[in-house]
């Protein structure tokens, strides 16, 4: 059985038009889409968060209709902030943290209607020799012992030195000043600052036919 290629999609941040542009070459390709989190917040276009979420839900609910093997969405720090903000007794500081990070409060009714979906978002996925995660990992810590806060928030020391895991880590969360993809032997960073740069990265990766494993929440 052949393992499908994976198309990893960096931080969308409500850039609905860019998402459609980047999806187009991959629809009908038989690939699996893996969104690396941060679908929402800081949207540069009207109603961008809602449009992005509804498009992702549409693809995920019936990937075969769009010529895809599957659609996986990982949890980012912005999905985590939203989850905390929409709790029935959310502390003011949780709501403020979400709002001051580019949130649109008009999204709350839609998000509450899909709260169970947000709650089940996994932190990682493994496909072949690639580990997909939103932010990164803490170096020299086994994957099963990683703190979930690190998986969605970490920058340094992950960005500054090899992590020691037997995978190439594909991540978003941190973009470079030149908005380029970072390619190193131990990690590939594909957040290209879409909401600021106008560049959203969708990176196609060939996955060997052995070992496809999902790591859950």
TrEMBL record:
Establish whether keyword Lipid biosynthesis is in the entry: no
Top EC class per UniProt? hydrolase
**A GO molecular-function descriptor:** hydrolase activity
Which domain of life, per UniProt?
Bacteria
Please give the Pfam families that the UniProt record associates with this protein. Metallophos
Where does the record place the Calcineurin-like phosphoesterase domain?
6-174
Q: Which UniProt keywords apply?
A: Hydrolase
Q: Does this UniProt record's set of keywords contain Nucleotide-binding?
A: no
EC number, as in UniProt? 3.1.-.-
The protein's matches in PANTHER family, at most eight in alphabetical order, are given as:
METALLOPHOSPHOESTERASE (PTHR42850), ZINC-DEPENDENT ENDOPOLYPHOSPHATASE (PTHR42850:SF4)
Q: Which protein is depicted?
A: Metallophosphoesterase family protein
* Species whose genome carries this gene: Cyanobium gracile UHCC 0139
